Amino acid sequence: MGIGKLISDLAMINIKLWHTEDKARSEKDHIIAEAKREIDKLNQQRNNLIENIDATVIEKLQKEKE
Fold first, then answer.
1. Distance between CA 38 and CA 2 in Å, rounded?
2. Which of 19, 46, 59, 60 is the most buried (most CB within 10 A)?
3. What is the DSSP secondary-structure string of 5-33?
């Protein structure tokens, strides 16, 4: 997967995360609980994407050195 796609995916996850964090500010406990579970999932996806971006950048830099 190219770096552009990874960054685009990261931007989409960030947007979803921000909207879900807004839901977590609800007064209703069941909505807060649901939002917190979704935030956990989105944060994991975000972390995975950042790791993939890092690996892709490192790989490209190493190829340029050769």
1. 27
2. 46
3. HHHHHHHHHHHHHHHHHHHTT-S-HHHHH
Integer distance in angstroms from the first to the last C-alpha of the chain?
21
Spans of all domains in the chain:
3-65
55 vs 60: CA distance, rounded Å: 9
Query: What whole-number distance in Å separates Cα of residue 65 and Cα of residue 59?
Result: 10
Give, for all 66 residues of the chain, the pLDDT tens digit.
799 999 999 999 999 999 999 999 999 999 999 999 999 999 999 999 999 999 999 999 998 988
Q: How far is CA 14 from CA 5, 18, 22, 54, in A?
A: 14, 6, 12, 17
